[in-house]
Amino acid sequence: MIGIDPISADSLAFATVAFGVIALAWSRASRWFPIGLAIASLVVLATWLRPLDIAALALFVGPPYFAIHQLWGQKQGSATRTAIVVIVWEVLLFIYLRKYEWVGDVSWLDHPVAIIGLSYMLFRVIHLIVEAPNMGHLPFGPLNYLSYIFAFWTLLSGPIQRYEAFVQGMSTAGRPAPDKALAAAHRMVNGLIKAFVIAPVFLRSSDIAALTSADANWLDFAIVLYSYPIYLYLNFSGYTDIVIAIARLCGVNTLPENFNRPYLARNLPDFWSRWHMSFGTWIRHYVFTPLSKFLLGATPPAAHNTMLAISVVVTFFVVGAWHGTTLNFLIFGLLHAGAIIVGAFYGGILKSILGKKRRKEFESHIVVRALSTVLCFHFVAATVLLFPNSVSSLASTLTQFWG
Amino acid sequence: MTARILKLMLWAALAVGVLELSARLFLFPQYTAMLPDMYWQHPVLGHYNKPNLAVRRFNPMNYDVINHTNSLGMRGREKDRERELAGVWIAGGSNTFGGYVSDGDVFAAGLKRYDIWAANLASEGHSIASQAAMLRVLAREGYRPRSVVLVLSMYFAIRDYSNDFSALTEPLAGSLSGAPVSTKTARQNLIAAMTDTREALPNDFQAIRARLLKSSALYGWFKVGTMGVPVLRDWTLRAGLRNDLDFVQNFDLKLLRPLTDDNPGRGEIESTADYVAAVSKMVKEMFDVPFGVLILPAHHQLHPESFARYVAHHGLTGQDLEPLRALTALKAALERRDIPFLDTFPALRDSGIARFTFPDDGHLTAEAHRIVARVLANWLKNDMRSGAPKVPVPR
Q1: Domain span at A139
Q2: Residue A197 domain-assigned?
Q3: N or C: which end of chain B has fewer CB within 10 A?
């Protein structure tokens, strides 16, 4: 909107909101913290939205609230049917609002609505719908719902918190012990330096257009290849450090960790358990596990490998689509699915040649581990280049560079 | 004690933050737009207007307008883009962009009132060289004008252009529509990014002020909002807390002195005319359409009393300074090179309006833009294409 800057994590306004909720948590009025968090979150969200966006958002979060309210602690009756109907509504509305490029050039997707953090909201809403029957022992109401869905610290880039952890966090809000506060402040400063000082350096050097320069050589190729994954990690993990630190300074210790040295992963399943961990957990819990269980249960054992492969492809289709609306992100997801299937196939061959025990010994060998890590990192580095670049510009630039 | 002071400082910081946030969201959000973020690194030109802008430019007692740009970053609405690009192309700097008047009041847009469609290629801070590159970019993208008008605003337009001729011939760096192209390697980008990071923090008072003006509604209100209060406005001017527009330099002083053989200003006038002639030749080769120059006078030329104050304030009395001297010499130089031009000074002077520039800013007002649009429309219709009188009589 003209005149109002959206409150992003690198703005003074975000710092003010953060310090405001921290001050509330530290004050004698800390019992009002959940209300303060809800107000702060709505203020941050409001700066990103225009009237039409707000109307669309109401359609996105309104119906699920009533469904969740109805399903809360109700394990019998029409719970499953209600949950399915609302999830389908949410997913269809999500696809409509996100304007997926690969859906096709259709006029009904040509709308001006844009809602920040919609992907994260979708995951939280689906989590609530699915788990509502099992969470009857937890409090649920409009205030908790709004704070959980719109929490300003996880609105823009996660992490994706489970509702029970959110409720537990709200109950412990207050002034942390001095050593914990100091550790959180330290983490916040580290996060700020990572996300807003070091990361931008690598963003600039990741520009593939640099490979079209007449003076470009292999060193430039290496800089471009490594810069974007370094930027992505520093920016994303730095942001996560900042929001986890803000929550901890409010006495909320239940925001999940999102990164565990992901570029040291030895294979892609390992990578996805270290990178954006809260997302990986959610996808595994709500997409891969139920889908593979269903497919394995519905097919004979001979088809199980194929069913697992299908589950991987579908899961990474969702991973790709969740990350972005263009075809690039789908290709990214499918490349990862393909590589995981190839990896599993390779593991099977190793097992049949070496046996289970010797395969484990072989894979534990320091050289094999190092090579696996290097290979995995390079695969990730190459595929994340699809995030900022179109397939055609990547192809033409690389052809020009190698040609 | 230290802990108490620290706590007090933290609460004070929080109070300022809350006040700032309230100011941005509810009280006076318009004051965060004092230096709006309007520019980006264009794939070919570098510094240029961001595409699809809708930015409020606000300064009480001066202007309160919204600037729109189309998807190519040109001043105006997207719906008119193709029609404008098929018409007259007007290249220039800030006065042509018209950032402080509304879209329809900019003289390029005002030509529509006379059934002339024109594309405004200008950008604030652009020189003739940058605009020449813009012409080449559009030509490469396949656009063709009916005619091209190059606007010379007399604010520092006259200078030595001998190092700028390469802008007319050197390969254009990138493409607006195709794959990205760069003249810089990744090594250079990495080093430049590291240097920028080092320089990202404001390192002098001016940089801090600029940063605050760009981002703080509270500071913006204190700095600019006070101008809306006449008493405060006069007091800040008297106290020297802000610049008096009349005392701001409009030209290099040598251009106001007699243009004798030993005055380097003479060479600069010739260099400017040479450069314009080179642009004219480039337009002829690229499009084979009429080319002309529009001259916009500066604040001190339009307001002799302001120039008298400037001279007195800076102790320049008795130095035979004449604000129109360079303008006259430039016109003669253009005439010698057979470049058609329209000098808008007589039309503005004879228009009868009292003020052509804003009280606190030397850019042309909407009223002045309207006069320029009228005389330009007349010139385009009757004189420029036929090549008849090069200095038309204002109507």
Answers
A1: 12-171
A2: yes
A3: N
Q: What is the pTM of this model?
A: 0.73
For B214, nearest residue in chain A (alpha carbons) = A5
Together in a domain, A154 and A182 = no
Q: Given A249, A283, A306, which residue is the final one in a domain?
A: A249
Q: Tell me, what DSSP letter sits at residue A386?
A: T
CA atoms within 13 A on the CB side of B367: 12
Chain B residue closest in CA terms to A22: B14
* β-pair partners for B56: B66
Q: How many CB atoms lie within 10 A of CB A156?
A: 19
Quick check: is A6 in a domain?
no
Residue B316: both structure tokens together: 């320049």
pLDDT > 70 in chain B, percent: 92
* B182·A207 Cβ contact <8 A: yes
Confidence class for position B393, pLDDT limits 50, 70, 90: very low
The per-type count for chain A, helices as H runs and strands as E runs, is: 18, 0
Q: Is residue A90 part of a domain?
A: yes
- DSSP, collapsed to helix, strand or coil, labels residue B23 as helix
Whether B264 shows a pLDDT value over 80: the answer reads yes
Element (H, E) at B132: helix B128-140
Select from A19, A43, A212 the Cβ nearest to the Cβ of B182: A212
A134 and A200 assigned to the same domain: no
Among A171, A199, A225, give the residue marking a domain's end: A171
By the 10 Å C-beta count (0-12 exposed, 13-18 middle, 19+ buried), A353 is classed as exposed
Residues lower than pLDDT 50 in chain A: 1-3
| B148, β-bridge pairs | B89, B291
Q: Are A12 and B215 within 8 A, CB to CB? A: yes
DSSP β-ladder status, B39-42 and B46-49: antiparallel
Neighbour count for residue A123 (Cβ, 10 Å) = 18
Cβ-defined contact of B190 to A205 (cutoff 8 Å):
yes
Q: Which of B330, B252, B181, B102 shows the shortest CA–CA distance to A216?
A: B181
Question: Does A340 lie in the same domain as A204?
Answer: no
Domains of chain B as residue ranges with CATH = 34-200+251-384 (3.40.50.1110)
Decide: B104 and B77 in contact? Cβ < 8 Å.
no
Q: Which residues pair with B350 in a beta bridge?
A: none
The beta-carbon neighbor of A3 closest among B17, B30, B186 is B30
Contacts with B20 from chain A: Cβ below 8 Å: 12-13, 16
Q: CB distance B56–A3 less than 8 Å?
A: yes
* Residue found by looking up tokens 């022992």 in the block: A137
- ipTM for the predicted complex: 0.83
Helix axes A142-150, A163-171, angle to 10 degrees: 110
DSSP states of A261-325? -GGG-SSHHHHHTTSSHHHHHHHIIIIIHHHHHHHHHHS-GGGHHHHHHHHHHHHHHHHHHHH-S
> Is A266 in contact with A369 (CB distance < 8 Å)?
yes
Count of A-B CB contacts under 8 Å: 117
With tokens 């390079």, the residue in question is A378
Nearest to A220 among B30, B56, B187 (CB): B187
Polymer length of chain B:
395
Among chain B residues, the shortest Cα distance to A197 is held by B197
pLDDT digit string, tens, across residues A133-155: 999 999 999 999 999 999 999 99
Q: Closest to A16 (Cβ–Cβ): which among B18, B174, B188?
A: B18
pLDDT (0 to 100) of residue B243: 79
Distance (Å, rounded) from C-alpha B88 to C-alpha A116?
A: 41
User: B254 vs A77, B11, B257, B258, B367, CA distance in Å?
Assistant: 91, 55, 5, 8, 31
**Cβ neighbours around A281 below 10 Å, total:** 16
Task: Please give the helix or strand (H or E) that residue B48 lies within, else none.
Answer: strand B46-49
- Is residue A72 located within the same domain as residue A137? yes
Per-residue model confidence as pLDDT tens digits over B195-231: 877 666 666 777 777 777 777 788 888 877 777 788 8
Whether residues A129 and A55 share a domain: the answer is: yes
